[in-house]
Structures
1.
Amino acid sequence: MCGRYASTRDKQELLEEFQVEVDGAAEEELRPDYNVAPTKPVYAVMSRVPKARPEGRAVRQLQVLRWGLVPAWAKDPSIGSRLINARVETVTEKPSFRKAFAERRCLLPADGYFEWAVPEGDGTAKKPKKQPYFIQPADGGVMAMAGLYEFWRDRGRPDDDPLAWLVTCAIITTSALDEAGQVHDRMPMVIERDRWSEWLDPGVPDAQGFLVPAGSTGLKVYPVSTAVNSVRNNGPELIEPLRDEEGDGQALF
């Protein structure tokens, strides 16, 4: 699964990187987040037809969503904390995700993500201590994680209440290979730049061609401080490589 990631690029950088046409987050700029956890607000890139021009083309937008997908049919939004990931093997079948996969795909920008593993040599311990690792593109570029988003209506609020609608998202995960697979057997599905437009296009209802195991990932993996274990901690030190003398863990490979 992917239960924690880092997203620290400022909004202007994302607008340029993803060639966004409409800044839908103009009134809400997120601070750099080195410890993104479920239910937090996150940036998402999507393509939607503007309400003012229903007959027009879909426009690429940057929006702020809440991580943890709440299906439209849910009675309350609490289910979102359990729907943070959608497995690539079942995303077209699960009632919680299949409609969003067909109509509402997005990209979730990240610097990289965290996973936990027991370092070599510690597996025989009675209660082995898991070591956090940070996994990021080797070239330092942005990681465009495949996501889904959904709209949920709070029926207890009037139509003109801005809080009547909640927009949430989930990360699609796939099997992990290469270095990432040595830490955990799952990883976020990453969409390559030359396929962003196709993935985001709501006019492409059948995107099953994307649903394949990860190929060569081009990722680098290194241990980081256990400070990331607490969602209360946040700062650039969370993604700095762990120094040997700190003793929290050794490199896995």
2.
Amino acid sequence: MSTHYAWWLAIAFVVLGPVVGALLAGIDRRLTARMQSRQGPPILQPVYDVLKLFEKDTLVVTRLQTLYLWFFLFFMVISGFILFLGSDLLLSLFALTVSGIFLCLAAYSTNSPYSNIGSSRELMLMMAYEPMLILVPLGFYLTTDSFRVADIVAGSPWQVLQLLGILVGFLFVLTIKLRKSPFDLSSSHHGHQELVKGLTTDFSGSDLALVEIAHWYENVILLGWLYLFFAPWGPWLALPIAFALFFVEVLVDNTHARLTWSSTLKATWWVTLLVGVTNLMLLPLVV
């Protein structure tokens, strides 16, 4: 990947990331509706919702919440910028983690019971999925001798088979990152959440719009991570596979009941150990 091309790709992410993320969210909602025998909203409905949020009044409990939400969005953009620039994948992961922490801080700052419980659950979920996420760049490093995204994209076509266990583990925690059932414990896109909206209960107006835009960026970042496993096969083959696996999460969301926090933690750590760590230990034998 040339430096010139990488910079254009990173800038395209900053400018067009919310557009692609909104389309992914719209298709997600439409597929969910069809699975539930409903017509569903227009694919651009997430965009209409955010535009409407900017027109509404913003009820601020504390000015800190808005500051934290801007940092949440900022580090989300930084994470994606690093990823699409072809730079360090591990650094991109750290920025993504810091972004999530700022969202929790914003929820905590409202002093609302629903937001506080949602934030506590979100931190617990981070404890569950972060070990598996760390194994992804480590696996790529062992197969390509580099953390750089550009080197991973130019890696061996066999790397997806060499990292099959890590791919399975990543798909498992992707359900948590996308806040899908059975792991939508801290917040939910659906009406079955006993915490109202959990993390985002006390956000409104432009503050809530910032959260939605950041989630659009996050959708694109996670899709980019998924793409890396198949990237050496070329974009014409890798992109359709990545999109297909991404939308499998919609099927999982609509066919599974929510787990408890303790079951989620145990299941995620077991999956990390059995498929992620085991794959990492066997890599020297297959590379």
